[in-house]
Structure prediction request, 473 residues.
Amino acid sequence: MQQYQSHVAALVVETERELRQRLRSVGDLDGIEAAARSVADGVARQLVEDLLADADRVVAEGLPRGWRLVGFRTRSLLSTVGPLRLTRRLYRDAKGRARLPLDEELGLAPQVRATARLQEIAVELCSRVPFRVAAGLLRQVLPAAPSPVALHRLVATVGDRRQRETDRLRQQVFEQGEPGSGERRVSRLFVEADGKWVHLQQTTGHRDLELYLGLAHEGWELEGRRRWRLKAKQVHLHVGGGVHFWEGFSAQLAERYDLQATRVVVNGDGADWVQHGSAYFHRAYGQLDRFHLIRALRRVLPGPEWRRAYRAACRGELLPAVRAILRGGHPDGPAVIQYLQHNRSGLADYRLQDGFRDDPGLRGLGAGEANIDKVIANRMSKRGMAWTIAGARRMAKVLETTHNGVLHNYVVRPLRARPRRRPLRRFLRTPANAVFQGTTAEEALHRTWAGTHSSVESFLRRIGRPPTLWEQG
Prediction:
């Protein structure tokens, strides 16, 4: 470690020299920023590569005696500071198996080509903009960036992992009969469901595909002056039938909540697959979304009439609305009456139901429509977007992870089967600036390595305040 610390100190000095040399040909702030970023990334790559090379040596010192050194192997790993080139020792163990001890200690799987940090940034960006745009933006801010094809593979990996997790939870609850492991208890849970059609490409016989969106929250909390936000919001996206949607969504919620005593409100547009959602919760009330109720009434009634019909419907009274529609004689009147009759059980406002009417802080529902736009439409249906069925499913699950804040759980991270060996733990926890600990700055100047560069003294004396690039003229 002492050798590594001395190397770090010398590298810092060399870095300052290189930066000053580059700044001689720079004439504006953009050039200064680019030069500083380039030098800093190079230093970071060198430090990481040297640190891991030293770590490989430390791990090798603690191997069993029966292991035989075969040679060295290199691998490239794309990171936020650029491509890392790692050199590790290759051994044969007592049974003749090939072993890379450093990879095993750090949990680096053979198929990993990028660090978890870079994967997370890249997938998050791809959930907001097209793949080519994301690749271009990453090239502007990183020394080296994945190609659009590589980004597509990353998104597919994350989407497939999330889908497998959803299928596992659904099968665990609805096929194996095991209850969810959720322990959080809330008195009320609000669930909203809606669908969004997206365009398809390269899919024979199909032009559009419906994505199902589920939204769950615990209520509302004040965010600033007269601004409210949903509390503990979760989203669930699904491509396929309504049965699997509700099984997956309810299993996801059961993994977080103990819903045995929770009153659940299911709000939606009245479609059959939405109405079936109430059956998946113990104490649920299905409400027709107020936006769709208003839209249906305004379609066939003038201003004063639809308002009176709406107020009656919110009280659970269907007959006044039907009479008003019949008096109006609108051609679409029979279709609207049929729509209201189909959703008669959900006309009354949920705040009139048991367990809700005594709380004046409850608000109206209807966040599903806004989240259709924010969660799905912005990425998957605007700007001429079109998808294959598999691509739409994967992107939907990626959007689910980003909006739920769990993306980091699904990128390809190092998997460690056992704790690190004690020498490696001690090595990685030793601070790289330990060479300065217990000494003053003046004493540090007289260390052996400090005399190797004339600019070390000026550098050390500036520690503790922002450096000035033009100090030395």
